[in-house]
Structures are given as structure tokens and as C-alpha cells.
Amino acid sequence: MTGLLADLAIGAAILALAAGMVAARSAFTATAFFIAYGLLLGLAWVRLGAVDIALTEAAIGAGLSGVLLLTAAARLAARPVATERAPGPLLTALIALCCAAVAVAIGAAILSLPEPTPSLAAEVAANLPATALGNPVAGVLMSYRALDTLLESAVVVLAVVGVWSLTPPGGWGGFPGPFHLRVESGPLALLARLLPPIGIVIALHILWVGKDAPGGKFQAAAILAAMWLLAWMAGLATPPRIASRRLRFAVSAGAGLFLAIGVAGALAEGAFLAYPAGWTKALVLAVEFALTASIAVALALLVMGPPEEEDRA
Amino acid sequence: MSLLLDGFTLVAVFAGILFFVAGTAGLLRFPDTSSRLHALTKADHLGLGLIVLGLLPQAGGVLPALKLLVIWALALLAGATVGPLIARLAREEDAPP
User: Can you quote a single GO CC term (chain A) (predicted)?
Assistant: First the structure.
């Protein structure tokens, strides 16, 4: 009963925040709603027993996307874009109709699911011992659906390439993002010195338990990226230039190693991304660690943004 | 004994919720940024602290209890640093150029 009440309250709050996001007049307000919405969505995932997704939603959905959107809102406020003419009443009605149709279709699809709901959970649970992993989510992500995870990690590399391609003329190869003066005293300097050691330990813990319990590379990478960004904002850590070969290697190493292991599986076992028997856990761990490092660097570079016009060096 | 601990949990968690309610009321009603931040950080620190205190007997072990305490400590650190940062920013924006 109390559980149902909590679920109803969380669901109602999520809907209210979504409505506030759509109705908000400024991009900043809408982003504030979006971050709160993402955090509550994380709670909803916890209530559904999907702690892995909850962690990812809170770290990537609310945290990282929130920061990216806030940066975008600040840039737009500083340099307003000439807006095209607002849609007329007919177009507005059409947009509303199409959005409503999508919502109704998704709702109908969920309500018309057969009872019991088709599921591969039993087969995953039965075959999990073969992967030597304790967390079924890790088993699905790194073994059964490894191709999806490989593509996801490649998308992050592509996103960095996309951000870098927005470099204004004269900035190519320079330091990513705005320059931050070194903060010598005050709360930011304290936090940037105190938090990273704790954050790095927590990130490694989340990465390490990910094979047997909720956690894993994306969540760990988001924390690591946040620690680097904190030191960057306090002016304590200068990121390498985007022309740096080591930086480029760091961004692409994880996906590259994953791809190489996949090709090796094709040669040795006859199937792309097949792990040789007995080697699953070791290879999965190697890929997870390499991917965590690469994704952390990539996520931080996404937040830092492309180099600016002038080369500071 | 367990009845006593459950009672302790109930009292502490409810006291924590009271602080959160008071902090939210302050956030909504107070006139300027500094007093709103004051209400918010007090509610966060004491409210979360009382809830964590109340949940300690229910954590089922020393390690989970320690994790709860670490979460509270991290929230304290975040509140103590982010609060002054926002306050400085608000003061800079309010000050005439």
C-alpha cells in the first residue's frame, strides 16, 4: 500500500516535471526541470528493480546531459540565434496531434503486451554461469548483446569527433573548451582538491562491482569525468590539446580494444565478439577497464567543448 | 530491542522529513538568494543527517551503515561548497557593474 503510494507520487512528480519542461519559457528553466526529471526517473527505475539503469539515468541522463544542456543554454543566451518564424496554429495543432499519437501508440503497445510478458530473463539466468559474471545486466551487455555495447562505445567516440568538428577557424588542434584561471582559495578550490581522490575510489568501486552487482563502466566513467571536470574548472588540471596523439588514443582505445577482441573472436571461435571458453571474464574485465578510461575522457571532452578561436599557447 | 530500534528509526526519519519540509518552505517563501540557500543547506544537512541516523539500525551490517554515513558526508561536503559558490555568483550578479 505504501509502496503503491510512493510509486504514484513518483509517477505524478515525473509527469509534472515533464509538463513543466515543455511549458518552461527559458532554456535554463527547462534544463532545471530536465535534471530533476532525470533524478526522479532514476528513483522510478529503482522502484522497478532496475538499479543499473537508475545509476546510468542519474549519472548520464540527469548529470552529464544536464551539464551539456546547461552549457548549451548559456551559450544560446550569450549569442541569441535569429529564430525562424514561429509555427502557425495549423502546424502547432499538427505537431500536438503527432506527439499525442506517438504517446497513445506507446501506451497501447504496453497495454497490449501478452500475459505473461515475453521475456528472455530465464534464459539469461540459466546461461549466466557460462560468462562467469554475477550481474545478469553485465552478462547481457558484455556477452549476449556485446555488439550493442560496442556500437554504444563507438558512438561516444563519434560524439567527440562531432564536437571537435565545431571548432571555429584558427582554433583547430588547441586546448578544448574555455580557459579556467587557477582558483587558489574558496569553496571551488577546496572541493577540487578534496573530492577527486574520493571520487576516483568510488568510480573504481562501481566499475569493479559492476560484474557481480549493479554498476559498470558508463556509471564509473561519468564519475571519473566529473572529477576531471572539477579539477579543470578550478584551473588545477589543463587538458591536453586536441591535436595530442595521446588524447586521441585515450578516446578511441576502449572501442578499439573491444573491436580487436571481437575480430579475434571471429578468427578463433568463428563468431564476431565470441569469447574463447574460460576467457570470458578476463576479456570482459579488460574491455570494461579500457572502455571506462576511454568513455571518461570522451565524456569530459564533450562537456569541455571544442577549442575556442584563439590559440592560447 | 528491535521494536525500540524501529521506534528510533521512525522518530529520526520523521524528524528528518520535518527539516526537509521546513527547508522547502523556506526555499519557496524566503525573499532573497542567501536566505533561500540558508534554508536549503540546513534542511539538506540536518534532514539528510537525521534520515541517515534513523536508517543506520535498519542497514543490516556495519558496511552498509558506513556507506550511508559516507553518503551523508559527501552531501555535507557538496552542500558546504556549492552553497557559497551559488551565493558568490548571486552577489556578483546583484552588484551594480
Answer: plasma membrane
Same domain flag for A147 and A71: no
Q: The C-alpha cell of A24 is what? A: 518552461
Hey, CA dihedral for A161, A164, A166, A169, is it positive or negative?
negative
pLDDT digits (tens, 9 = 90+) for A75-98: 888 877 766 677 788 999 999 999
Q: Do B77 and A191 touch (CB under 8 A)?
A: yes
Q: Tell whether A187 is within 8 A of chain B (Cβ).
A: yes
Read off the pTM. 0.87
Tell me the ipTM for this assembly: 0.84
- CB pair distance less than 8 Å for A190 and B81: yes
Q: Does B71 touch chain A (CB under 8 A)?
A: no
Q: Phi/psi zone of residue A153: left (φ > 0), alpha (ψ -120 to 50 degrees), beta?
A: alpha
In a shared domain, residues A74 and A171: no
The residue range of the domain holding B6 is 2-94
The count of structural domains within chain B is 1
Render pLDDT for A96-123 as a digit per residue (tens, 0 to 9).
999 999 999 999 998 888 888 778 888 8
